[in-house]
Specification:
- The protein is of the alpha+beta class.
- The longest helix has 14 residues.
- The relative contact order is 0.21.
Amino acid sequence: MTGPWAGALLPLAAAVAVVLSYCCCHGASAAAAASFGDNFEITGAEDHVKTSADGQTWYLYLDNKTGVGFQTKQRYLFGWFSMKLKLVGNDSAGVVTAYYMCSDVDAAPLRDELDFEFLGNRSGEPYIIQTNVYHNGVGGREMRHSLWFDPTADFHTYAILWNPKHIVFFVDKVAIRVYPNDASKPGGGGSNGFFPISKAMYIFSSIWNADDWATRGGLEKTDWSRAPFVSSYRDFAADACAWPADAGSPPACAAATGDSWWDQPPAWALDAGQRLDNAWVARNLLIYDYCDDRKRFPTPPEECALRAAATAS
């Protein structure tokens, strides 16, 4: 069985092509072939969203009146989720573009959530990408990285692989973060206590003002004279286990080991090339890691030791 995990590290475009080919061969729908409107609905001010003539690219606008967002019409439990984004250019201090998965549409107190957050910058300063994991409404698992390219100059792909073994955050072809589960827990569907494993999630994105914290801890405020701020999106793809809203129990595809490529052993761990890339990111681009923050966590959370083992070469 093939997928983006098989063999050597693939360029992400090739990986997605493999995934979509696998879907088509098994009668599944290829989400990337549909327009944004087929997959998503707008949340917020509709006049702050523009669409390309072919319906394949969406533009979200933020001004001093409001931001805007969108969410998938479908929710999922496990799979591969990717989106191409081009971030706000020039002076974007205070502006946050979020691309994330969440089990609830209203940020409910016991939600599970997987986050990409792109923290705006003053002109000439690098963008910061923050990832986070929430379980039962509790977060605090932040990591921050710089990027090895200008994310405002062109589209780049941001993806999440989620299965019962681990969650992997990708930027283009590189696994920047691995968040593992404890496979030794009983029952196959066991959890280390802070791993989203049972709640189906929607995919969201939004652009909003967060100048109370986003840039240099809130020291840099949003310059509204530069508004509107625009983030761009295209090429959404989900090869994943869809969980219908009216389903009372998990669908068969949510099994810990099933027929989908993300359930198979090659998708349970990074391969050798991916581990090397992940180690390079940790050495060169890591800005903040909650596992190393002894002020917040005098004793590191359990998954920190698991991650060290999972990414060891």
